[in-house]
Amino acid sequence: MFDVLIKGAAVIDGTGQKAKVADVGIKGDSIVEVGQIESIEAREIFDGRGYFLCPGFIDAHSHSDFNILAEPPGGSKIKQGVTTEVCGNCGLSAAPLLGDYKKQRKKSVKALGVDINWADFKEYRQVAEQKGLPLNILPLIGHGNLRGAVMGYENRKASASEKKEMNVLFEKEMKEGAWGLSSGLIYPPGVYAGQDELIELNHIVKEFNGVYTSHIRSEGDYLIDAIDEVISVAKESGVSLQISHLKTMGEKNWHKLPLVFKKIERALDEGMDVAADRYPLYSGKHRP
Ligand SMILES: [Zn+2]
Predict the structure, then answer these.
(1) Which is nearest to 66 in space by CA: 98, 97, 30?
(2) E-assigned strands of the chain?
(3) How far away, in angstroms, is 185 Cα from ligand 1 center?
(4) Ligand 1 center to residue 186 CA distance, Å?
(5) How far is the CA of 100 from the centre of ligand 1 (A)?
(6) CA-based Rg of the chain, rounded to a whole angstrom?
(7) How far apart are CA 119 and CA 14, in angstroms?
(8) In this structure, are residues 43 and 3 in contact, taking their beta carbons and an 8 Å threshold?
(9) CA 89 – ligand 1 centroid, Å
């Protein structure tokens, strides 16, 4: 007896095979049978004819950190088939939230009806878990949160003791279950950081076998320098790198993309772990 039986859907199993029409039997939270299932004994039966059935999608670049606390939590992503989200990208995460950075964030999430009553990742996680999330979250810690907590929005390099403070804050969040670090090197306060600061933090990412994602310093006029910078930070610290929403902005910069790919391929050839994600964007001129 199945708990759920889905009949006659076009099943895409995620292995790269073409869709095959099949029945899928589920017991508890496990798929126990895929194929022509004769039995119709199930608590719930869905007629899958005319539908695709596939594993949940992973959204590799998301900013749902605060949205998942709004009502109903996570609903919009689940309806799109997303079952796992990587949150906390572009240097901005829901924790830690301290000092000026917290004040700024409190204002910006008010419209969602979310009241920030946490300071660190452990407390945020408790709030999120109490909401009963319908999907998996892979949380990153924003470099902006760390710098903002220690230095506010000051436009200068971090001193040795400030870097130490950021490292301590970050290590604590990694111990609490964060998956890595994200930086937003185009936004304040991340834009004020030098490579040394990012490399120190990434040494901690490496210790925890985490991932480093970055909204790089330029996505147009200084794209090549920005790619060089982020690859060099990852190389120095030995971390896995995810270049966020890779693109080249402005028609005069379009020719740079082949060189960007070459640089990524070179890093891969050297044994580095580098990947990138993209989002679909239409420029006004080239709208299909
Ligand atoms: Zn971004």
Answers:
(1) 97
(2) 2-11, 20-27, 30-35, 42-47, 52-53, 57-59, 82-87, 136-142, 180-184, 211-215, 240-243, 274-276
(3) 9
(4) 9
(5) 21
(6) 22
(7) 39
(8) yes
(9) 7
How many A from CA of 91 to the centre of ligand 1? 8
DSSP for 49-79 reads TT-EE-PPEEESS---TTGGGSSSTTHHHHH
What separation in Å is there between the alpha carbon of 24 and the centre of ligand 1? 38
Claim: this prediction has a pTM higher than 0.90: no
Residues 216-252: tens digit of each pLDDT: 999 999 999 999 999 999 999 999 999 999 999 999 9
What spacing in Å lies between the alpha carbon of 142 and ligand 1's midpoint?
11
Span from the CA of 87 to the centroid of ligand 1 (angstroms): 11
* Model pLDDT for residues 12-64, shown as the tens digit of each residue: 988 899 999 999 999 999 999 999 998 878 999 999 999 999 999 999 999 99
Task: Respond yes or no on whether the N-terminal peptide bond of residue 280 is cis (omega within 30° of 0).
Answer: no
Taking the centre of ligand 1 as the mean of its atom positions, its distance from the CA of residue 277, in whole angstroms, is: 11
49 C-alpha to ligand 1 centroid (Å): 39
Residue 192 backbone phi and psi in degrees, to 5: -85, -5
Could you give the angle at the alpha carbon of 241 between the alpha carbons of 276 and 196, nearest 5°? 130
Name 68's Cβ contacts closer than 8 Å, sequence gap at least 6: 74, 87, 128, 131, 133, 137
CA 1: distance to chain centroid?
Answer: 38
